[in-house]
Amino acid sequence: AQLTIYMTTSGAVLMPECLSFSVAWRWLRRRTRNRLAGALVLYMLASLAVNCDLFLSRCCCVWPGSSIQRTRLHSFNAACNAKNGGSHTRLRASPPNTPSAEAWRDFRAKLVASGLKLTTDERPNDTVERGNDSDNASTKAIRRSVAPKNEELLLEQNKELWSEYINGAWAHPGIVEAGTLLCRLPIEGQLMYLMRQGSAGETTWGQKLREQLVKELPDAEAGRSKDELFETWSRNTNYCYRMAETMVHKELGSIAQTATDGRVDLSKLSTAQRELIMMYSQASTEYWQAVCLVLSTKPGSSTDAREAIMINRPCARRIDAKFANLLLNGAEGAVNFDEETIEACERAFGLEAAVYMGGPDKQASGGLLVHGFEDLPGAEEIAPGTRIYTGGVRAAIDGVLNGKFKPLDFRWFVGRHTDLSTRNGGWSAVACARPICLKQCLGLPKPLWHEVMQLCGGENAALSRLEFVEQFQEDPDTDPDTRRIVEQTQQEE
After folding, report:
1. Contact between residue 452 and residue 181 where contact means Cβ atoms under 8 Å apart
2. Is this structure's pTM higher than 0.90?
3. pLDDT in tens, 458-482
4. Sign of torsion, CA 28 30 33 39?
């Protein structure tokens, strides 16, 4: 029988070869939990015959709308043996020469460029038209714009990056790897994650929320156990968010009642109460709606970032001579750049610059320059295929001075994060298009955190809408777009 093996993010699926690719694509999209499951597809042809072994050493990568490109990726031994009217099939895979990260990112980019609909697609009546320049060819694109005013600001700052954004901006939940973003979740979202982990949760508060939800479950229905009911109810984001919110506010109120002269003595609190205060402090103050770009990960880990920078905490719009020296040479006495370069940096970025607080660690080690220019001398890509670069300071300064670049084509960062992880549910890893990582976060009409979370769709978008309600429902200056999101969320609840 002729079979097609589809490798998706949800696993491998065998299908008859007689089905066309378009039919198979729709079949996969209907049967996978992730709406982007079809985005990473290996289209492999296998011939399986009864009572014989067939060695398969070639497969095909299919890009929608393009010709088939052959590549040697995996080697399979397939054996079909008929026994007593039945059959037994074995697929044995030799160690794969898997595609590189750059190949996967290029694959994903080609899928997007060819018109693959993502979770960020809009309905047909949400068609938007952008510009009349040659970059857009005066065409209409059906896409979802989650932050139109942010796009207008990006157009003023960087036309090339804007064009790349509106023609291919995407985001979806992923794993921790260089080039992805980490979005800090509100404490309610973190507790929901811990609740769903059950005994695997790392705090007592996830278990407390779980017990609260179990108490509110209805009696077991015919054919549905308590566990099945819990699985269903625990996926109701709005309901669980409000339940977590109530639990947190109630407990914090109890802690506040122990205060003496406006101060709470932590030594008199239980371990669980101190734990809640720490979680609340990180989620609601220290890292509130933080978005971090992962520069590198810990070896072999898909949950822990070795180094990351916070990209939505601007701290300076100009660079004087003293600040230039701090960015270029740090505060530890190192001399990486001479006085001439420091003076040139002041001239290039003295009137306009974008400097961000990257994190609490390594603040004395000098600044980090981030940009999207591949051919900048001295620049290094943070990971193959990301097209996000660091370094090339002297070339960047010279380019701004001679008019080749604009100051806002670059972003400076002071400090790093060295201990971020998704294991305890506090951070959500998001894979996204590079314009989202590279664009400036200076006076954004819609905060970057909301923009990224809404691009992701699913529960991330739901959490964003719920946070919108908390932040803007009582604000008389809320703009119409934000007001619409608030009202939509209140109707859904």
Report:
1. yes
2. no
3. 999 999 999 987 766 544 455 566 6
4. positive
